[in-house]
Amino acid sequence: MEAYVNVNHLDNGIKEIEFFHPSHNSLPSNVLSKLSQTIAHCGQDSETNVIILKSGGDRTFCAGASFDELISINDFETGKQFFMGFANVINACRKCPKLIIGRVQGKAVGGGVGLASAVDYCLATKFAAVKLSELNVGIGPFVVGPAVSRKLGLSAMSQMAINAQEFYSAQWAQQQGLYADVLEDTQALDIAVMKLAKFLAATNPEARAALKAIFWEGCEDWDVLLSKRAAVSGNLVLSTFTKNALSKYSK
Question: Does residue 10 sit within a domain?
Fold first, then answer.
């Protein structure tokens, strides 16, 4: 199957945004761009009450950055623009006036943790372990860091960023505040997601919008902040250390 970003129009103004990539739902630039545009479009649609963000397949929620694309980066502007893709998705979630429910069915790595952190309410299965693996390839979770830190706190974010080889369990992520609940399997997850989405869709839209604005107070500088963070990663991806580390993943 080829990569895609689709919108499913469900009852009661519930919009389900689903992304997919055959390589463990990794995110190359074109998917990131389509994802940020789709979130923004659904957010501005007056017919939308609630958004569900999910990925295709039954296993990995999102493996983060596309290693194939990272390996091909040879100049700063290209590198910065690649990492801006993640910044744009996070900012699209932040600016979206509609509440976003995250559905995390499996492992979330790097940018995938950033996506789970950028939604307003996140539900997961017990298989949804998390990992900030960027330091393994000489970079760091610079762009997703603000979103992860906002949701889990600086202590938990720094723990993951430093111990970049380890997966942290879904239960640990729930304890830190990333997941509101951890379900037994995808069937239970889907039931819980739809139950919440239907409840929210029936509530006062003005109240939902006001809550969304309050949740994201203090993040108004993220357009500039995440751009600066993307520049840091754009420089690091050109370093000899990172090039050598990434070469181990080349086909």
Answer: yes
Q: How many domains does the chain have?
A: 1
Strand segments, DSSP code E, in 116-166 are: 121-125, 130-131
Q: Which two tokens stand for residue 180?
A: 């509101």
Joined tokens for residue 104: 């995390």
| Strand-pair partners of 4 | 20
Dist. CA 130–CA 112, nearest whole Å: 8
Unique residue bearing structure tokens 């970003």: 5
Residue 168 DSSP one-character state = B
Structure tokens at 144: 């997703």
Dihedral angle, C-alpha 23, 27, 31, 34, nearest 10 °: 150
Per residue in 144-198, pLDDT (tens digit) is: 999 999 999 999 999 999 999 999 999 999 999 999 999 999 999 999 999 999 9
How far is residue 155's CA from residue 87's CA, in Å, rounded to a whole number?
Answer: 22
Does this model's pTM top 0.90? My answer is yes
Domain that holds residue 94: 4-185
Do the domain assignments include residue 191?
no
Is there a domain that residue 233 lies in?
A: no
Q: Is 99 exposed, middle or buried (0-12, 13-18, 19+ CB in 10 A)?
A: buried
Helix axes 76-95, 222-236, angle to 10 degrees: 150
Residue 52 β-bridge partners: 16, 101
Contact 127, 107 (CB under 8 A): yes
